[in-house]
Amino acid sequence: MSGFRDSASASQPYKDPTPLPDSVPRVQELGVTSGPLKSAAFFIGAYCKEYNEDFMLCKNEGRGDPGQCLKEGRRVTRCATDLITKMRENCLEQFDAHWNCLELNNQEYYACRKPERTLNKCMFEKLGLTKTVPGTPAGKKQIHEVEKPIYTTVQR
Asked: In 24-127, which ranges are continuous DSSP H helix?
């Protein structure tokens, strides 16, 4: 029989019942919520492309064995941590404005195009990274560069 255990009033800190073996090196978590991750998502995709591709190839070859790709997964996490750190060092004000806007607008990009444009400009100027949405037809403007979009916070 199991019982409810209130974590707030626990006498001991939580201990994972199934920890990773010591042979698996530890990696720090990113330490950000969904807002900053979504704000940085396209930049992480561009900055960490090789690591992401290695991880996805490993997952496809692994046929359901998650332990096989831990090394590649740690590389992706380290790369994303590195980029988030660089974003905070170089574009903190713009990054904070964009992810806070996402938090306040149900994680919808279309509601946060102004802070997104300033973040994109800063990222290009300081880190040389551009936001590119995969699957955009050739010759068409990227959705975040459209001047008068159909979808806005107030519908026309």
From this structure: 34-47, 49-62, 70-104, 113-127
> Pick from 36, 124, 100, 102: which is nearest to 145 by CA?
124
Distance CA 61, CA 68 (A): 9
Closest CA to 31 of 104, 82, 68: 82
Residue 32's closest CA among 72, 81, 70?
Answer: 81
CA distances to 26, 72, 124 from 66, rounded to whole Å, are 16, 11, 35
- Dihedral (CA of 118, 121, 123, 125) sign: negative
Integer Cα distance of 90 and 80 in angstroms: 15
Phi/psi of residue 30, each to 5°?
Answer: -65, -35
Residue-wise pLDDT tens digits, 53-80: 999 999 888 777 777 888 888 899 999 9
AA identity, residue 147: E
- Quote the tokens at residue 15: 């201990």
Which tokens belong to 130?
A: 């551009």
Q: What are the tokens at 84?
A: 């988030």
Q: What are phi and psi of 41, to 5 degrees?
A: -55, -50
